[in-house]
Amino acid sequence: MCAINGTAAGGGYELALATDYIMMVDDGNTAVSLPEVPLLAVLPGTGGLTRVVDKRKVRRDRADIFSSTEEGTKGKRAVEWRLVDEVVPSSQFKDRIKSRALELAARSDRPTDARGVLLSPLDRNIAGDRMTYRYVTVDIDRDTRAANITIRAPQEAPPADADGIHVQGDAFWPLALAREFDDAMLHLRLNEPTVASWVFHSEGSLDRVAEYDALLARTADNWLSREILLYWKRTLKRLDVSSRSLFALVTPGSCFAGFLLEIVFAADRSFMLDGIHEGQNESPAVIRLTPSNFGPLPMSNGLTRLATRFLGEPDSVAAAEKLAGQDLEAATVDQAGLVTATPDDIDWDDEIRLVLEERASFSPDALTGMEANLRFAGPETMETKIFGRLTAWQNWIFQRPNAVGEAGALKLYGTGKRADYNQERV
Fold first, then answer.
1. What is the pLDDT of residue 392?
2. pLDDT lower than 50: segments of the chain
């Protein structure tokens, strides 16, 4: 819920648009607006326009007027146009905020006596090109411009039930891992912009990962388990929309199962070693599908990553579902189409090296546009428009001379001077 008392313009209104219910004071001055087009020659930041028409269902012509008007919209018109849900006189505003908030809170099935989980600060250590957490390690190879991200399974068994999850709190492995994984991605996004590829590895007991996966599925009606699954859903979506090339490597000792296997299906390309490395005596690599791969963790397009992968092959999804619960070696995985390739020991090193070197040689701008389009096959949704496609185009607009050139609107904003636009619309 968002309560607006004062003008919510641009990013301020976009914050409101991200909520489920918008309430605005009706005082003759308070308004909502998206003035970026007339004032700054750019777009309302990612999602503003899309949420107006796709989420709030504002009529197209009204949305056009709204997005072209500097002063915004206020009062009853804002409600009539569905830009807000409710306007309230100043004298009643505080009381109405409270009553409406309580109404919304009453919809929750969370027990009234439930206690939250304290999220302690993450233990992240950075030394040179290595970043370590308890369950995640990131090693950056500057030569190939690749970040090797290794995810570790826990050694300890999961608790028996939802009460045990509450007792463990933020030490519960799926929650701890989600926080570390999310933090590592954000660090790489913001602080390592020249890293071209993220290469995912895993290590530890596959059985242990499957046990935690089964516990979350078994307790999914518990509020905390549900929140942890939703955290993973959101974190995996963040992976989907990261503007880096994504690769997953499945090797002996990997533990890609259940929700962790979604990382493999999120990758632009995935490779699984067929057999073992020469001189090693470990067991061949395996993966394990579980019900987590067939519904609870959809992409922004509303489909699972497997359904998106096999968009033209619905029978392949059904065939994969029949393999759930089994330890699948490279030959079976390759036949089922679950990875890109299964090189043997002779070809493995060269194939991985070549694909990373090739990726590092391409234009990062072109790759961002290509990946954003290829990753979201299937139905277009509000989320795919905002996060899958619009972001790349919006970033282009924000770099154009009409916005940021010497005579651009963003450059001159606040100076009293008019922008000088190149009027070609091609």
1. 67
2. none
* pLDDT at site 305: 98
Structure-token pair, residue 404: 């940021």
Q: Which residue has the tokens 């493995």?
A: 348
CATH of 1-107+384-426, one of 3.90.226.10, 3.40.1440.60, 3.40.50.2300, 2.70.70.10: 3.90.226.10
Give 141's DSSP letter: E
pLDDT at 114: 83
Q: Are 37 and 45 in contact (CB under 8 A)?
A: no
**Alpha-carbon distances of 256 from 143, 200, 202, 207, 259, rounded to whole Å:** 27, 10, 7, 10, 8
Q: What share of the chain is helix, strand, coil (3-state, %, to 5)?
A: 45, 15, 40
In the prediction, which pLDDT does 365 show?
82
User: What's the pLDDT tens digit per position in 32-74?
Assistant: 999 999 999 988 876 899 999 999 999 999 999 999 999 999 9
- List the Cα angle 320/324/326 in 5-degree steps: 115
Token pair 């029949």 is found at: 322
DSSP letters, 230-255, are HHHHHHHHHHHT-SSEEEEEE-TT--
For domain 125-370, give the CATH superfamily.
2-enoyl-CoA Hydratase; Chain A, domain 1 (3.90.226.10)
Task: Please state, as a whole number, how many other Cβ atoms lie within 10 Å of the Cβ of residue 65.
Answer: 12
Contact between 113 and 162 under an 8 Å Cβ cutoff? The reply is no
Output the furthest CA–CA distance in the chain (Å, rounded). 79
Asked whether the beta carbons of 131 and 124 are under 8 A apart, the reply is yes
- How far CA 408 is from CA of 37, 402, 414, in Å, comes to 12, 4, 12
**What pLDDT score does 226 carry?**
96
Q: What residues does 170 pair with on adjacent strands?
A: none
Q: How many other C-beta atoms are found inside a 10 Å radius of the C-beta of residue 390?
A: 19
Residues in the chain: 426
Q: Centre a 10 Å sphere on the Cβ of residue 309 and count the other Cβ atoms it contains.
A: 18
The DSSP call for residue 413 is T
Q: Contact 67/42 with Cβ under 8 angstroms?
A: no
Tokens in use for 383? 């989320």
Is 370 in a helix, a strand, or coil? helix
DSSP letter for 369, please.
H
Determine the Cα–Cα distance for residues 390 and 48; give it in Å rounded to an integer.
11
